[in-house]
Amino acid sequence: MSIQSSIEEKLQAFEPAFLQVENESHRHAVPPNSETHFKVTLVSDRFEGLMPVKRHQQLYALLADELSGPVHALALHLYTLQEWDASGQARPDSPDCRGGGR
Question: Fewer CB near the last or first residue (10 Å), C or N of the chain?
Answer without folding.
Answer: N
